[in-house]
Amino acid sequence: MTYLLKGGDVYAPEKLGKKDILIINNQVVAIEDSLSVSELSPTVIDVGGKTVCPGFIDQHVHITGGGGQFGFSSFIPELFAGNLLAVGTTTVMGLLGTDGFVKELSTLYSKAKALDATGVTAYMLTSYYGLPEKTLCGSVAEDLIFIDKVIGCKLAISDDRSSFPTIHELLRLINQVRLGGFTSGKGGILHIHLGALESRIDDLLTIAEKYPTLISYISPTHCSRTERLFSDCIKFAKAGGMIDISTGGTTFTNPHKAVKIALDAGVPLDKITFSSDGRGGVKRENPATGEITYTPAPLDLNLKEMVSLVRNDILPLEDALQLITTNPARNMKIKKKGALRPGYDADIVVLTDQLEIDRVISMGVLRDISQVH
């Protein structure tokens, strides 16, 4: 497919002004003040008066559905590519949660491949909350090396549902993702779920201090779960680590307000990301009847919190976009994603003047999101 986007206000995510964008097959080929390529017979899309930005990257999504903490009835169904594209997410990292038994890695891999085939670039993490780690090939390193979709490993700490890993077990897993990452050329990350226990991230801060070369392999998430946890995560970020603020789930303050707290404390903008925790299970109890239901966590909160950063004058749009584009791409160590550049993948979101989703292009194809609910 060949598209020519005309006259949009382009954020790459840095503000470029009004530009034309030429897309051929699945790549951005040119971004210029004015492009005339009639000989290519492109599909011309007038995006004048609209904002054009990179497709969003969500690095923490339960693509096969979360839940299972309260019995079989609490499992959440899988999602589909249209659910992600409708909220502007064109790249996703799928993972397992507390359950690594009913929700299996083979199913997670199959879902990542299905998303790829239907318009969303999908990656996955091996293992789940606990130890011993679960893998497909026998070890975390081998999963990274031999399985195309695997870019890292999942683990939980400081949570009463975790397996309470020691610092030596953390270091062993970091070694595995590092070894598998450089052998495969993927980079490798250990994505760590943070709970609310008082141990917080003591071990991660110790690793950052003693082994600073390992910090880029550590990816803590749910960092704003509690105020004290977030204070420690700010220390981790100032030491050079990346911190992920969940836009869904438990948080001591609104995610956009947490970003302001971190920035005011001296955390560099390029060390902060948003992720949705989408499709995890949300427990609700009817106060009148006592009936308990489980519903899927929303997928659109990254966009809403990014917009809140702009609306509340915390960050200009070109900076706010980094939390869901360039920063997660860097954290996940994926190439040609998270920015609009010639040679990069043609994953593009067009926003209205109210910063709502207007159009989505993923893998170089204009997607129909009108029928997605």
Task: Give the helices and strands, then pairings.
Layout: E1 2-11, E2 15-24, E3 27-32, E4 43-46, E5 51-54, E6 56-61, H1 81-85, E7 89-94, H2 105-117, E8 121-126, H3 140-146, E9 150-157, H4 167-184, E10 189-194, H5 202-210, E11 218-221, H6 227-238, E12 243-246, H7 255-264, E13 272-275, E14 281-285, E15 292-296, H8 301-311, H9 317-320, H10 326-332, E16 348-351, E17 357-362, E18 365-366
Parallel strand pairs: 1-4, 1-5, 6-7, 7-8, 8-9, 9-10, 10-11, 12-13
Antiparallel strand pairs: 1-2, 2-3, 5-16, 14-15, 16-17, 17-18
Describe this structure in words.
The chain is an alpha/beta fold and 373 residues long. It has 2 domains: 2-53 and 338-366, Roll (Urease, subunit C, domain 1); 56-332, Alpha-Beta Barrel (TIM Barrel). The protein is 26% helix and 27% strand. It has 10 helices and 18 strands. The chain has helices at 81-85, 105-117, 140-146, 167-184, 202-210, 227-238, 255-264, 301-311, 317-320, 326-332; strands at residues 2-11, 15-24, 27-32, 43-46, 51-54, 56-61, 89-94, 121-126, 150-157, 189-194, 218-221, 243-246, 272-275, 281-285, 292-296, 348-351, 357-362, 365-366. Strand 7, helix 2 and strand 8 form a beta-alpha-beta unit.
